[in-house]
Specification:
The complex is a heterodimer of chains A (621) and B (73).
Chain A: H1 9-17, E1 22-25, E2 32-37, E3 47-50, H2 62-72, E4 80-85, H3 89-102, E5 106-111, H4 113-118, E6 121-123, H5 125-132, E7 135-138, H6 147-156, H7 173-190, E8 191-193, H8 206-209, H9 214-255, H10 260-277, H11 280-296, H12 298-311, H13 320-325, H14 330-336, H15 343-352, H16 362-372, H17 378-403, E9 418-420, H18 428-460, H19 474-480, H20 483-490, H21 492-495, H22 502-510, H23 517-525, H24 534-547, H25 560-572, H26 577-587, H27 591-617
Parallel strand pairs in A: 4-5, 5-7
Antiparallel strand pairs in A: 1-2, 2-3, 6-8
Chain B: E1 11-17, H1 22-29, E2 37-42, E3 50-54, E4 57-61, H2 63-66, E5 69-72
Antiparallel strand pairs in B: 1-2, 1-5, 2-3, 3-4
The chains are: A mainly alpha (621), B alpha+beta (73).
């Protein structure tokens, strides 16, 4: 299947395959496409492949280049189903007329006939078929009308034998205009006014959604709702997942013999998988909400509304969704940046995504804020929490502004050229199925990386093995004498200026698997009694943090200044190796991810040291 | 005059796309060819991109891009 963007290709693809399809990457690239057998009820022995939507044959973005590569390799498919929108026939025929020069085996599918009728016009499919010299079928993917006709045509299809591709160079303006005149003449012949006229003048929602004042207000309201939904709806699911993996880890340890293999399995592998799955509810809700907005047609409008503010810092309206996703998790956010066609704007977006306060930071913020804010005034903690989120956005703005001046990111005024598809009633089934496929892709892509990294860090902080299996306090003995702790002790002079002792340093290192691991590592390193009750555990840890002193002195480690420094560190540092790995696979080079790691973590460290030292110089402990 | 000078809801006929660079060719390929009817759907918030309707669809274009589209009086 091929065709212009927003022609209804995906809807038709779903109508032909049901939800039984796979999303796979083109070899050696991050561009993905969907592929699946025709659904059984159609009794069609065929595999259908959806290609990314085309704007032209120029290959303006990496996904369009991939689509063109696929379509021009005639050996890789038998029949091209070209999907066009009846309401913008001349634009779409312009593209198909060129594709037709590549290959003769084209079947033309015209969608949105219902929309055309509501505009008081109708299409003569037979005439279109005659004029274009290819078979044409009218379909309505949403109501599943015409799919039978299409299947009949596919069955009747006979390969014409011609497989040569006549690829042309980029057209000149004169060629473009000549071709438009040609397809315009066809459009005039095949589309006629309905005898009954239009079904009444309808209100254009863009008058509201793109209103100079209201447009901005509506955008903020919608995005704030999505943002809140990510957190509110996901929390109960996340709690269930958290308890489930807690039980699984406990159960594994009780059932299997107390040897190191059990520990690796429970604390390395299962805990690692848990730290991937815990974010799934948020990510699935994010995909659902974005898919819904996309299907209604609003998402493109949102990108238009926010384009101007984002262009001030060198970004693009299309950067917004990736940045918003960054509040859930940087990994799907970086993957979402694929839709940005300008490479430099895409790189800049990926560059600042880790500064968005992802939800893995939340448990750390909660711990540190409850330590430094008065218990009887919880609202202070709330304000500080909001401050941390806003601080992340401010840091991202500063980073983008500075970086956009650098040659690596600097680009001309940039362009938008964004099609605003017609508003449609969203198809829930399609939204759910696409959210499911995208969540699955996140698990497949991020899952192994996160598990491997968490396993590696676990090994690093648990070798060489100490004590006998099952012995009381063995875990602490192992960790405190591990390679990780040796390095932690060596690095204590580095940690001390930001107010941490070596144990806090080791906890921070373990947080590089995933930030929230910091909290459980603190519990381990400071030997807080473990309980199943999260509240009690945190209370125990908070009590312990009050007492901890630097070894051999009575100087307290966790004070107002050191916690403030830690908060700053966690807000800025790129303290998540899986993010670095995903950024590398998405960009195709280690350069930017390593620069991110260095700059953000370095700035975080220096800032934390400055905060701690300045506060202490002014007598704040 | 160029399309950004029109108020929302107004329309005109494209007379020319200024320049011969990639952007102008891209615009013509997207359907902004001389002779086409074009209308301003909205001028958008924040003095940002404008929404232009051409050949049955709507595009958001930054003002600097849209100002390349000249319309006949």
């Amino acid at each position: 299947m091929a065709g212009p963007c927003n022609a209804g290709k995906t809807t038709l693809f779903n109508g032909l395959t049901g939800s039984n399809y796979k999303t796979v990457n083109y070899p050696g690239s991050t561009v993905s496409f969907s592929k699946g057998p025709a659904k059984r009820s159609l009794a069609l022995d065929a595999v259908i492949e959806d290609t990314p939507g085309l704007n032209s044959l120029r290959g303006d973005s990496s996904d369009q280049k991939m689509a063109l590569g696929k379509l021009s390799s005639r050996d890789s498919y038998d029949l091209m189903i070209a999907v066009v929108d009846a309401t913008q026939l001349s634009r779409h025929l312009y593209l198909i007329d060129q594709l037709k020069e590549w290959a003769h085996d084209i079947l033309l599918c015209v969608t949105m006939n219902d929309l055309l009728k509501s505009q008081g016009r109708q299409l003569d499919v037979q005439a279109l078929s005659r004029e274009m010299g290819v078979k044409a079928v009218a379909i309505d993917g949403r109501k599943k009308k015409g799919i039978r006709d299409l299947v009949e045509e596919i069955r009747r299809f006979l390969p014409q034998g011609e497989t040569a591709i006549h690829k042309q160079g980029h057209p000149s303006k004169d060629q473009i205009r000549a071709r438009y005149r040609k397809v315009e003449a066809i459009e005039d012949k095949v589309i006629s006014p309905l005898p009954t006229g239009a079904s009444g003048k309808w209100f254009n929602p863009d008058r509201l959604f793109l209103h100079p004042v209201l447009g901005g207000v509506i955008f903020i309201a919608i995005m704030f709702s999505v943002f809140s939904a990510i957190f509110w709806f996901a929390t109960p699911f996340m709690n269930v997942i958290d308890s489930f993996f807690g039980m699984l880890i406990q159960g594994t340890k009780q059932l299997l013999p107390a040897i190191w293999v059990t520990d690796i399995l429970a604390d390395g592998v299962i805990a690692g998988i848990g730290s991937v799955v815990i974010f799934l509810p948020q990510i699935a809700i994010l995909f659902l909400a974005m898919g819904y907005l996309e299907d209604t047609g609003y998402l493109a409008r949102g990108a238009m509304v926010i384009d101007k503010p984002l262009s001030k810092i060198g970004l693009n309206g299309k950067s917004f969704v990736p940045l918003l996703s960054g509040f859930a998790c940087a990994i799907p956010a970086i993957m979402a940046a694929r839709t940005i066609s300008s490479r430099k704007e895409r790189l800049l977006t990926i560059f600042i995504i880790p500064l968005m306060s992802c939800s893995a930071r939340l448990p750390v913020y909660v711990l540190l804020l409850s330590f430094i804010t008065p218990r009887e005034k919880p609202w202070i903690g709330g304000i500080c929490m909001a401050g941390l989120y806003i601080g992340g956005i401010v840091a991202a703005t500063v980073a983008a502004t500075v970086a956009s001046k650098l040659p690596a990111f600097r680009h001309g005024s940039g362009s938008l050229l964004l099609e605003l598809p017609a508003y449609r009633k969203p198809q829930l089934k399609l939204v759910v199925s696409s959210a499911y496929h995208r969540s699955k892709q996140y698990l497949r892509k991020a899952g192994p990386t996160i598990v491997v990294i968490s396993l590696a860090l676990w090994t690093f902080t648990h070798l060489p093995l100490q004590g006998t299996a099952g012995e009381e306090g063995r875990e602490y003995a192992t960790v405190s004498q591990s390679y990780g702790s040796k390095i932690g002790k060596v690095l204590e002079p580095v940690m001390k200026p930001m107010g941490l002792d070596w144990r806090g340093g080791v906890a921070m290192m373990m947080g590089f698997a995933a930030r929230e691991v910091f909290v459980s590592s603190m519990v381990l390193m400071y030997r807080v009694e473990e309980t199943d009750d999260d509240e009690a555990l945190r209370a125990g840890l908070l009590r312990r943090m009050q007492e901890v002193t630097f070894a051999g002195t009575d100087q307290k480690v966790y004070t107002f200044s050191s916690c403030l420094g830690l908060l700053f560190f966690f807000a800025i540092a790129l303290q998540c190796f899986p993010t670095v790995v995903i950024a590398k696979t998405e960009i195709g080079s280690w350069k930017l991810p390593l620069i991110q790691l260095g700059i953000f973590t370095g700035t975080a460290y220096v800032g934390a040291v400055v905060i701690v030292q300045v506060l202490r110089a002014f007598g704040v402990a | 005059m160029d399309i950004t000078q029109l108020k929302a809801g107004m329309s005109g006929i494209i007379s020319q796309i200024v320049g011969g660079d990639d952007l102008s060719i891209q615009l013509e390929e997207m359907g902004f060819v001389p002779g086409s009817e074009i209308s301003v759907v909205s001028r958008g918030p924040f003095a940002g991109p404008v929404a232009l309707a051409v050949r049955g669809t709507t595009f958001a274009l930054r003002r600097s891009e849209a100002s390349r589209i000249k319309i006949g009086s």
